[in-house]
Amino acid sequence: MQKGLVIKSTGSWYDVRLEDGTVVQSRIIGKYKIKGLQTTNPVTVGDQVELIIEKGEEGTGLIKNILPRENYVARQSPRKKHEIHLLASNVDQAVVIVTIIEPMLKQGFIDRFLLMTEPFNIPTTIVFNKEDLYGDDEMPVYLYLKELYEKIGYTVMLVSAEEGTGLDDLRAHLKDKITLISGQSGVGKSSLVNALLPNLDLQTTILSDFSGKGQHTTTFAEMFELEFGGNIIDTPGIKTLSFNYLSPMDLAHNFREFFVASENCKFGGSCQHRNEPKCAVKDAIEAEEISDLRYANYMALLEEIEEQNYWERRKT
Fold this sequence. Notes:
Layout: E1 2-9, E2 14-18, E3 23-28, E4 33-34, E5 37-38, E6 48-53, E7 60-66, E8 72-76, E9 84-89, E10 93-98, H1 107-117, E11 124-128, H2 138-151, E12 155-158, H3 167-174, E13 178-183, H4 189-196, E14 222-225, E15 231-234, H5 248-253, H6 256-261, H7 280-286, H8 292-307, H9 310-314
Parallel strand pairs: 3-7, 10-11, 10-13, 11-12, 13-15
Antiparallel strand pairs: 1-2, 1-6, 2-3, 4-5, 6-7, 8-9, 14-15
């Protein structure tokens, strides 16, 4: 039995880097669950595993055990609504790439992404790319969102993969850490990874002229070593995020400024901040101490989660 780190996942096969640096293409047999949740991929990039080298299959391994995870980032499977899909595990931090223009920003996506990392207290940085395209209409939007998210404790950065601006600060932020990098299709994630890893040359694509949306260029998750120290886990572009594995109270507790304010709600930690009397979150919104934009996204997510049949959510 040997130990190794999963550095690439293609669905049924996984590249595992052994302790001596050798990379072994491996597979797994059997079904695994996380806290009773059925997953579409039992092994993910970042996992520490134990495996054996298969006899008669030179260079291939059989994963026998997944070692305990410090954390993981998961999303609802886009194809199997009753299952979750693991994006990565054992990460030090996450970076979500967004842009104000080309494609137009969907601010709700930021809050949805944060809902994946917040339950595990994974530090998350919001990186606005394509700064070179920001004009008089876009820059005020960026500055507004920067203030909004920094106020509640998130790091916000402005970069341009095309012109290289802001990349030194981003490199310093990534140094010596394992970082999950993700974002919606078309935001320039692959171009940004290429700028950080000039010898990699990931495939990039232009936006669709018809839809104004990006296309997936990364088709599987993979870990890359950074020459200045650390690793990044590049993941496929995300179009939508849903949360079949969360309850309404999970949602309320993971909007961090709502959770802090809820200590003063009449119903405390059980308040959903909807129509309850003496709700400190609603009072803070009225006083402009909590963003009404974040609250609107929260309400949309709350309705979405409640629309999923109670028993359906527990079939997972």
